[in-house]
């Protein structure tokens, strides 16, 4: 799969890469540090990603703002987007589902728990039919 | 000789007789003159009386004497010549038995006025609407009204006065009473804190001082102005409706809030009540307009609304802030936790036991800090303005809690009697029970621990009790435990926030929370929720 991982925290990126490295299936990760950078990546890429993992709380353009831009776009709106967050704010969760997301993952404290959750997410999308332009 | 003497005597006697006759003649002459004069005098008097009698008979027919109202004839010195029975009854004096002078009956307050009135009567010939107080024989005071005129003789000379008396004592009393009532009413109207105006055909005819004061015009300036000149339509629709409403039958009372324009151009808002006063035929005679300046109240209301919306905004901000802060604190903890895990995993071979142990301690501290942050977040959102109410089966809530929290093996949580289903915020209800039960289950040192959730229904309240057979709480802490960061447990995991969240949620449902506990025996946590806040009405959209 081609995964766009949008996250400003370097250690979070390390965590995700470490999880992917342990998986049997190889995936291509494209990183973006914030929403604006992610839009640049999307605009310049030859091929759109299969799924997007998006941190809710980011500087400059917040996850929700980016999500809105994404879902308003004629082409990007088909991309399954999964939110990653520490926020248990129900208002955020409702707003995300309203705009349109494919998942809302709470980051647990322990790395092992996180690894468990993210592995499941990736495996789920491995077996899912993808949009594939 | 004798003859001579005799002659002389006779002569003398004759002379004496002569003298006497002359004298007698003289007396007779005088007497007859007197008699003549007297006759003439009598004749004059007679004719005077005759003409008086004539006058009486022509001008003052007997019917006057028989009228019901008291009727009196006086001479020019106000002595009664005659009067009818009604007058005798009324005054208590009888002219046939004693001379009467009416001047003596006049009450001293009215003497001067009376003198003037009667002088004028003599001059002009008639007296109309003379009103005075008199004192009659039995000393009682009477208000009378007299219409009278002068009596003239045939030659046009005044010879007497006559008049009809009317007793107006009762009338005067009623008049005085009315005047008194009117004075009292005026006092009320003049001192009313409400502005009052009377209008006829849409024009002001009278206002009270408060009305003038409110509008800054004098009463004279306001009279004949129309309400439209001093008001603007605060509520356009109502304004135009109201004239129609008043004119149609039935609706005689209209209330509205209007804006008024003072003389100086300033405006104020007043509650206005207009009542129609109708005559016997049902036509509107007057309209009474009562206005109450509510500018201050209006301002206060607006201020209140502003404060409320400010408070709401600030509450919302605070909540967002809490979420952001908690995220910013949680994220680095996740990173630290991940890094510690990796060191443990990646450098397993190179770390000795002490190193492994220290990493585990670090993980634990990170975990307790994460818990603390979560607690603070929950506490700060426990009284967020939005309660997401829905139907909640509390039995399900307890079951969910039993799955969620850590319960030591020797402890069991039981619900002996089925709990009710209530309309409430599911998350908050779970927080409420979970914080108490979570506390209870970890503070039991007995071999068999038991935590029970009990329920009682009162008239206005639901009361819940969570009872345990744990270590108990010393009396001196019974109040303190509900304050934030006041942890009395020596367990590492207590943050001192749980029970303060409980207190906050119970407060939101206008209930109470308290504790009964004995050290070594157990603890009962009681809390109540107000039923009126657990109804469909309080249910809001999620």
TrEMBL record, chain A:
UniProt cross-references to InterPro entries, sorted A to Z = CheY-like_superfamily, Sig_transdc_resp-reg_receiver, TCS_response_regulator
Phosphoprotein among keywords: yes
TM region(s), chain numbering: none
Superkingdom in the source lineage: Bacteria
SUPFAM superfamilies in the cross-refs: CheY-like (SSF52172)
Q: Which PROSITE patterns does the record cross-reference, listed alphabetically?
A: RESPONSE_REGULATORY
Which residues, renumbered to this chain, carry the PTM 4-aspartylphosphate?
55
Enumerate the UniProt keywords alphabetically: Phosphoprotein
Q: Which CDD domains match?
A: REC_Rcp-like (cd17557)
Pfam family, any one: Response_reg
Q: What PANTHER family does the database record attribute to this sequence?
A: RESPONSE REGULATOR RCP1, RESPONSE REGULATOR RCP1-RELATED
The protein's name:
Response regulator
The organism of origin for this protein: Euzebyella marina
UniProtKB/TrEMBL annotation, chain B:
Keyword terms:
Coiled coil, Kinase, Phosphoprotein, Transferase
State the top-level EC class. transferase
Q: Where are the transmembrane segments?
A: none
Pfam families membership:
HATPase_c, HisKA, PAS_9
**Residue ranges of domain Histidine kinase in the record:** 324-533
Cite the PAC domain residue spans from the record.
128-180, 254-306
| E.C. designation(s) | 2.7.13.3
**Coiled-coil ranges (or none):** 294-321
Q: Which reaction does it catalyse?
A: ATP + protein L-histidine = ADP + protein N-phospho-L-histidine
Domain PAS stretches:
196-223
Q: What is this protein called?
A: histidine kinase
Q: Which organism is it from?
A: Euzebyella marina
């Amino acid at each position: 799969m081609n995964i766009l991982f949008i996250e400003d925290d370097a250690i979070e990126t390390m965590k995700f890469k470490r999880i992917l490295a342990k998986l049997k299936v190889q995936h291509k990760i494209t990183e973006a540090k914030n929403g604006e950078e992610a839009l640049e990546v999307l605009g310049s890429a030859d091929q759109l990603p299969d799924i997007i993992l998006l941190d809710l709380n980011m500087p400059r353009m917040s996850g929700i703002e980016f999500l809105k831009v994404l879902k308003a776009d004629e082409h990007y709106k088909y991309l399954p987007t999964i939110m990653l967050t520490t926020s248990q704010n129900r208002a955020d969760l409702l707003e995300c589902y309203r705009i349109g997301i494919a998942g809302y993952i709470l980051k647990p404290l322990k790395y092992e728990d996180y690894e468990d959750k993210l592995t499941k997410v990736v495996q789920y999308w491995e077996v899912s039919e993808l949009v594939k332009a | 000789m004798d003859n001579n003497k005799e002659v002389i005597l006779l002569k003398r006697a004759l002379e004496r007789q002569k003298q006497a006759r002359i004298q007698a003649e003289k007396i007779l002459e005088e007497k007859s003159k007197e008699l003549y004069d007297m006759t003439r005098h009598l004749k004059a008097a007679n004719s005077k009386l005759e003409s008086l009698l004539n006058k009486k008979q022509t001008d003052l027919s007997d019917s006057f004497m028989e009228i019901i109202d008291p009727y009196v004839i006086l001479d020019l010195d106000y002595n009664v010549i005659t009067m009818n029975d009604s007058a005798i009854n009324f005054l208590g004096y009888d002219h046939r038995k004693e001379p009467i002078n009416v001047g003596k009956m006049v009450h001293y307050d009215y003497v001067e006025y009376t003198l003037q009135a009667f002088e004028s009567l003599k001059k002009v010939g008639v007296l109309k609407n003379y009103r005075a107080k008199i004192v009659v024989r039995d000393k009682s005071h009477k208000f009378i009204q007299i219409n009278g005129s002068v009596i003239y003789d045939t030659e046009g000379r005044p010879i007497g006065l006559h008049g009809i008396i009317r007793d107006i004592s009762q009338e005067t009393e009623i008049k005085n009473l009315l005047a008194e009532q009117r004075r009292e009413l005026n006092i009320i109207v003049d001192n009313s804190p409400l502005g009052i105006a009377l209008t006829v055909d849409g024009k002001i005819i009278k206002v009270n001082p408060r009305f003038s004061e409110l509008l800054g015009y004098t009463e004279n300036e306001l009279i004949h102005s129309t309400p439209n000149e001093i008001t603007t339509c605060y509520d356009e629709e109502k304004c135009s409706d109201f004239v129609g409403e008043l004119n149609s039958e039935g609706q005689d009372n209209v209330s509205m809030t209007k804006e008024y324009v003072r003389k100086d151009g300033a405006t104020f808002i007043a509650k206005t009540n207009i009542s129609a006063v109708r005559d016997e035929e049902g036509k509107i005679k007057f309209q009474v307009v009562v206005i109450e300046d509510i500018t201050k109240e209006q301002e206060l209301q607006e201020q209140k609304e502003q404060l409320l919306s400010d408070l709401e905004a600030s509450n919302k901000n605070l909540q967002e802030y809490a979420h952001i802060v908690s995220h910013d604190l949680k994220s680095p903890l996740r990173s630290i936790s991940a890094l510690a895990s990796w060191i443990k995993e990646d450098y397993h071979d190179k770390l000795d036991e002490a190193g492994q142990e220290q990493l585990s301690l670090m993980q634990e501290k990170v975990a307790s800090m994460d818990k603390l942050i979560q607690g603070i977040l929950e506490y700060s959102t426990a009284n967020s303005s939005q309660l997401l109410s829905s139907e909640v089966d509390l039995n399900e809530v307890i079951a969910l809690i039993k799955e969620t929290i850590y319960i030591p093996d020797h402890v069991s949580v039981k619900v002996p009697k089925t709990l009710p289903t209530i309309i409430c915020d599911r998350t908050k209800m779970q927080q409420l029970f979970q914080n108490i039960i979570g506390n209870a289950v970890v503070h039991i040192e007995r071999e068999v621990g038991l935590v029970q959730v009990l329920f009682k229904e009162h008239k206005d309240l639901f009361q819940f009790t969570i009872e345990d057979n744990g270590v108990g709480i010393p009396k001196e802490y019974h109040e303190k435990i509900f304050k934030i960061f006041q942890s009395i447990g020596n367990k590492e995991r207590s943050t001192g926030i749980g029970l303060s969240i409980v207190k906050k949620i119970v407060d939101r449902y206008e209930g109470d929370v308290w504790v009964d506990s004995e050290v070594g025996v157990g603890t009962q946590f009681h809390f109540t929720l107000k039923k009126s806040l657990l109804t469909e009405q309080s249910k809001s959209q999620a």
